[in-house]
Amino acid sequence: MLEDKATRITLFSLRSAPMRAFHLTWLAFFVCFFAWFACAPLMPVIVQAFSLTPEQVANINIAAVAVTILVRMLVGPLCDRYGPRRIYTGLMTLGALPVFALAFADDYLTFLLCRLGIGAIGASFVITQYHTSVMFAPNVVGTANATTAGWGNAGAGAAQALVPLLFSAILFLGVDTAQAWRGAMLVPGAALLAMAWLYWRYTQDCPQGDYATLRRDAARLPPRKGGWASFRQACGNYRVWMLFLTYAACFGVEVFMHNIAAIYYVMHFDFSLRDAGLAAGTFGLLALFARALGGWLSDKAAARWGLDVRASLLCLLIIGEGLGLLWFSQASGAVMAILAMLVFGLFTHMACGATYALVPFVDRKALGGVAGIVGAGGNVGAVAAGFLMKEVGDMQGTLLWLGAFVAVSSLCALAVRFSAEHKANEAALRDRALAAGGLAR
Fold it and tell me: Among the four residues 20, 29, 198, 428, which has the most C-beta atoms within 10 Å?
């Protein structure tokens, strides 16, 4: 029920179900993204180990994000049906298997298949956003979604920065290069299993409890379609597909950058593996605050000017991302490239946060379907970027084209508008939640 949702975020409290979900969702997301991108900064070593061609590298990058499209569309409706606690625990447990298997890959095809399987872990984002959306009230849900996503997303940046250090530490112990990168991949696999146990032990599906228990008393279960009914209803809403495209433009570019940033700095600016990882890691670590900033701005603007301003803000952020990406693609020096990457990365992460600050308001009765479809859009964007790189044949040229595409996609955000009745209903829900006071303490 709406009045049971938290109306404020108390960061240093774990006493309430919403705040336990808040902290465990971002931590689970962090671990999942760390595992998803753990091998990205090691690609220069892996390329040599398997004698990979540029086309094979592009195929691996595409595989890393392609399967996530399907899994993201699946887990949203599954959360409606079975609850985020069960789906998240299952995803992390199963996702650990291809991570461990990657450490034992001995040829290109096996590596490609493992990378494909690991891509399923990227669906963790949808579950994170679903879980915080059902735990927090309209006045803070944008901030809650963006903060948990941002802190979790930082797992990708942490992987870029820390995995090369882990690799170097294993080398220091006397292990040869061929085995050191394999040893480094065992760490994220173990972390996934540990996080799965924590999530199962300390979270619940919604403020009232677990869906399985609540369904014994239908009056206590929040009214929401389940399974494919949620997915079908979301498919019929044009706003979902506009946000699908905007998320392709922001998160899609983010994922693409995580996969190519380290090798880009090695190839274009002669960085060492460690320095390239640190440079690439700064892009991901921006998510620690930038995503939250995008969601917070969306909440504050909506409180003053109404629901439609959330879409207008998203449009401006995507324009800033596109212009920054164009600048990055044309940077000729390493310092200028890093500066440009930080600028366009700031807009990219803020746009991601602003997108999911809008998602909970599109269709409350099909939240899982909406979250899943929009989330899949991000991976469609990353796959499209991968195919664009194969077509262009050059990373710098690919980034130039991406900048132009991103800037044009901002028009999709402007197309997201709501009826007067929809806006009135949302305003009433917000007022009711504030009057009730929420659960977070």
Answer: 29
Locate 149 and state its tokens.
Answer: 């996503």
**Domain spans of the chain, in order of start:** 18-211+224-229+238-436
For residue range 131-179, what is the model confidence (pLDDT) as tens digits? 999 999 988 999 999 999 989 988 888 888 899 899 999 999 999 998 9
pLDDT per residue as tens digits for the range 259-303: 888 889 988 899 988 888 888 888 988 988 999 999 999 999 999
Question: SS3 letters for the chain?
Answer: CHHHCECCCCCCCCCCHHHHHHHHHHHHHHHHHHHHCCCHHHHHHHHHHHCCCHHHHHHHHHHHHHHHHHHHHHHHHHHHHHCHHHHHHHHHHHHHHHHHHHCCCCCHHHHHHHHHHHHHHHHHHHHHHHHHHHHECCCCHHHHHHHHHHHHHHHHHHHHHHHHHHHHHHHHCCCCHHHHHHHHHHHHHHHHHHHHHHHHHHCCCECCECHHHHCCCHHHCCCCCCHHHHHHHHHCCHHHHHHHHHHHHHHHHHHHHHHHHHHHHHHHHCCCHHHHHHHHHHHHHHHHCHHHHHHHHHHHHHHHHCCHHHHHHHHHHHHHHHHHHHHHHHCCCHHHHHHHHHHHHHHHHHHHHHHHHHHHHCCHHHHHHHHHHHHHHHHHHHHHHHHHHHHHCCHHHHHHHHHHHHHHHHHHHHCCCCCHHHHHHHHHHHHHHHHHCCCCC
The structure's pTM equals 0.85
CATH (residue range 18-211+224-229+238-436): 1.20.1250.20
